[in-house]
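Narrative of accomplishments. A recurring question from our advisory board has been how the design workflow behaves on a single, concrete structure rather than in aggregate. To address it, we present the structure tokens for one chain from the evaluation set, followed by the sequence designed for it. No filtering or post-editing was applied between the two.
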């Protein structure tokens, strides 16, 4: 008869937890506790819940910890028993150390010989007892970007903890967390129903919290936000802006999901949409309303209650919005009195990095490097616009608009440049300079913008790597992973053929006095870029071993490497691929066991028919492969490689590569080495698993 299963409930009630912290806190708590429960053999399934004030775990089908059986190997049987089969002092001492009777010892045959073995049974413990030990240790070890202390200064967590609710099958699990004793008590919504709630079960917890204006389920809160936002926007003939990330933030900001609609003076719509949207979104977490594709003079705001009967919440948001928009209009008008060009001297007072100098020096480096990149990319006809865009690219950093709305840097520069009459390629380059900001963001629209964005990132990466400030572990204070990802995305999306290591070397020469030498920095940077390329290709759905097969070859041209991955992925679906991959691995193994110098295979030294047939097929195909690979027709090149599979199979079946005659052996090795090196121009098939 199986063990009885039980439910589990755990809730930490604290001061308001920042919305930006909750997603990772939920994930960490669930992962830590799930792993600990599995290790403790408690079974069950866990789910995490949260609001702005609480983190909770709900479990079902948990069981008391079962007994654990184990076998401990002791001394060899020859040492444990004498010739008459009686236990020696060694066996007696072993039994005593393991807490078992000598009579219970067994002799078993193991791979290393015959040994004395003790079978131990560790009694299981009640689940509540085990959980009471596990949870405080795990919760108190949770990490957050910023921690708080309270009380006597000893507790340290994201926010001060008010209560701890912990139940197993309806009974309180005794524990102490941050000095707070566990119980069955929690509290409702801070203002709408702050009374004490006594909880008897998981269902009771859900029901009583919902009656107390708290919705514990994140997905339910988010769904209600969507419903309310659509309904309120429809009342004024519009629809909510498409912003899934902001709805996620809303869901983490409250306990009771409510939305209010407000309005603003339509005259503000004369300002660029980007400024209005950023003001609403970043400063007040508002969702804009759109009508007929354009921004409407309405917004949707989150509130921690359902309904706003007196309209006070909406009016409060309207007052703040009007003030923000008035500031934005002042900055827009006032900044317009000074051209971007005239702001450049101020960049000399804006530090980019202590050793790398001020932002004006960075601007000069971007301009120099942009010209070099354009020459490598065959875009020298854009030199005039590149020089102009590079000169103005950081000028908006010293505008009042960017000081007020830092998230608009780059965008503001583009808007101001357009207002000043700069060519489209130039103002778009300024506007798009920080794109892509993520793996899913778009790249700069024009070639000028693409080159400027590359130059900016390569300057930053080579400079900071040269200072020894590369990311370590999860720490990346300068967002260098994002910068490198941007470089890779731009090269892939624009299909630009660029020798990236050479481009990095050109960027590195523009930095003076860095402590680390280029021959140390550049290989690290190349590996750093390849890791970002690997991430993107696998995210796109390519098999990890296909990606590895290409990235272990020469990948100085990232766009070229991506094309080779796609070609190999297509070939993997063909029947000819498996024999080719197997033959390549065998070829690679032989060459690793008997390395030698590169030499041209000599048909005159070939004695075996299978050897001659392979050489004939390969040497005839080699010229075609050279041509196809040079023209990046990788699918055709791989098809020819696959056609050599039967001849390779016959060669390995009929020919002894390690011939006794040194010349014959060396010639056969030379043939295999030439084939391997030719194939590896596309991919190293030995990396691919069957």
């Amino acid at each position: 008869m199986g063990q009885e299963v039980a439910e589990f409930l755990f809730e930490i009630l604290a001061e308001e937890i920042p919305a930006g912290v909750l997603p990772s806190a939920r994930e960490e708590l669930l992962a830590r506790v799930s792993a600990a429960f599995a290790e403790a053999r408690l079974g069950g399934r866990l789910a995490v819940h949260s609001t702005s004030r609480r983190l909770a775990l709900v479990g079902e089908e948990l069981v008391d910890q079962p007994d654990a059986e184990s076998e401990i190997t002791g001394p060899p049987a020859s040492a444990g028993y004498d010739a008459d089969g009686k236990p020696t002092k060694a066996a007696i001492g072993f039994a005593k150390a393991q807490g078992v009777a000598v009579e219970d010892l067994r002799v078993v045959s193991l791979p290393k010989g015959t040994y004395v073995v003790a079978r131990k049974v560790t009694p299981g413990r009640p689940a509540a007892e085990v959980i009471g030990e596990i949870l405080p240790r795990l919760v108190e070890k949770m990490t957050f970007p910023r921690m708080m202390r309270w009380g006597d200064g000893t507790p340290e967590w994201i926010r001060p903890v008010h209560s701890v609710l912990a139940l197993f099958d309806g009974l309180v699990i005794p524990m102490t967390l941050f000095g707070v004793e566990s119980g069955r008590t929690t509290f409702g919504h801070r203002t709408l129903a702050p009374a004490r709630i006594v909880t008897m079960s998981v269902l009771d917890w859900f029901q009583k919290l919902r009656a107390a204006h708290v919705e514990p389920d994140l997905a339910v809160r988010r769904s209600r936000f969507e419903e309310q936002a659509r309904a309120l926007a429809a009342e004024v003939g519009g629809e909510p802006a498409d912003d899934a990330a902001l709805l996620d933030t809303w869901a983490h900001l409250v306990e009771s999901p409510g939305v209010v609609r407000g309005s603003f003076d339509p005259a503000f719509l004369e300002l660029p949409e980007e400024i209005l949207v950023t003001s609403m979104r970043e400063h007040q977490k508002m969702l804009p309303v759109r009508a007929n594709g354009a921004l409407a003079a309405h917004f949707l705001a989150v509130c921690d209650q359902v309904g706003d009967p007196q309209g006070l919440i909406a009016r409060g948001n309207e007052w703040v919005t009007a003030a923000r928009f008035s500031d934005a209009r002042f900055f827009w008008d006032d900044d317009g009195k000074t051209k971007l060009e005239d702001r450049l001297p101020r960049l000399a007072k804006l530090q980019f990095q202590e050793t790398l100098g001020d932002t004006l020096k960075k601007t000069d480096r971007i301009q120099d490097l942009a010209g070099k990149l354009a020459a490598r990319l065959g875009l020298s006809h854009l030199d005039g616009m590149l020089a102009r865009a590079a000169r103005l690219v950081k000028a908006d950093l010293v505008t009042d608009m960017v000081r007020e709305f830092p998230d608009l840097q780059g965008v503001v520069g583009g808007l101001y440049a357009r207002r000043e009459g700069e060519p489209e390629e130039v103002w778009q380059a300024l506007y798009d300079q920080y794109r892509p900001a993520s793996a899913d963001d778009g790249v700069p629209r024009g070639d000028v913008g693409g080159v400027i964005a590359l130059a900016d990132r390569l300057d930053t990466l080579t400079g900071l790597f040269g200072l020894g400030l590369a990311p370590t572990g999860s720490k990346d204070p300068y967002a260098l992973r994002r910068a490198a990802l941007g470089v890779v995305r731009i090269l892939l999306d624009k299909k630009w053929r660029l020798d990236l290591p050479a481009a990095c070397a050109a960027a590195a020469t523009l930095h003076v006095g860095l402590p680390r030498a280029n021959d140390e920095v550049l290989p690290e940077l190349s590996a750093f870029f390849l890791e970002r390329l690997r991430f993107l290709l696998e995210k796109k759905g390519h098999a990890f071993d296909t990606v590895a097969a290409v990235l272990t070859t020469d990948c100085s041209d990232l766009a070229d490497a991506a094309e080779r991955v796609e070609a190999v992925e297509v070939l993997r679906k063909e029947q000819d691929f498996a024999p080719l991959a197997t033959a390549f691995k065998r070829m690679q193994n032989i060459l690793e066991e008997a390395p030698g110098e590169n030499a041209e295979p000599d048909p005159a030294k070939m004695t075996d028919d299978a050897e001659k047939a392979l050489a004939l097929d390969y040497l005839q195909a080699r010229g075609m492969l050279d041509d196809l690979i040079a023209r990046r027709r990788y699918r055709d090149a791989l098809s020819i490689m696959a056609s050599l599979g039967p001849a390779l199979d016959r060669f390995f079946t009929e020919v002894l590569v390690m011939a006794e005659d040194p010349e014959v052996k060396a010639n056969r090795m030379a043939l295999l080495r030439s084939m391997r090196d030719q194939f590896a121009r596309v991919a190293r098939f030995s990396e691919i698993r069957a």
